[in-house]
Amino acid sequence: MERKIISIENICKKVLTRLDVMGYEKDKSISCERLVFPNKRQAKGNRKRISEQELRLLFIEVFKTSNPDLFYSIETPTENKYKFGPSLDLIVCDKKGQSALLDMCVFERGVKNYRRILNIEFKHKNCAIKNIGKDILKLICEKQNGAFIQLLNNTNRGTMCNNKSTGVFDKLYDSFLRYKGSWDNIDKFIRILILSLKGQVLIYRDICSSDLGNLENIFFQSNSCGKIEAIIGKNNWKTL
Prior knowledge:
Strand order of the largest sheet: 2-1-3-4-5-6-7
Structural class: alpha/beta
Oligomer: single chain
Number of helices: 5
């Protein structure tokens, strides 16, 4: 089980605050953050490139400060083997496949070695469903607790869930529904965290094995939902 010392949501809150004050390449003012957003090369005007990388770098910095007795690795080979095709149907956990990579893995130090206690995947914007599906499958199949952290530049009506099935919640629902049969560790959980950069809001919820029969309600499949703020307090989605 995840140790209580790892407060993923508090780390994400600090990361969100730091992302908000970051400067960008053509900014005239100087930011207190040394990390800066680069500009898109072919963009007109001053358009900064926001990506998963800034999210991950700042998360690691805050993690190291708040958890000095824990250890971590990046781009960590999975313990299970997988086959990744171009669609959800072709993304499977398979003994004949090969190891995949986890964005970040947290360890505690034992008497003889390091022990994995948490796997983390990072995503930026409302990306393709196959990219979300691959991450969810890995977090489900690996035996440790997991965290899926998704940074959105902003949310509006339909970003989270809509009748076109293109929202973030729609894609998470499809992924969990498809791969829930691979969940065999009933004691673990996967914490879902969605961050809105412009709104400076985050929501989070744990998904446990007991929730797998309630996915439709958890991800608002029976009705659309609007901005991220409207989700807080509903279906056990929390904020700080």
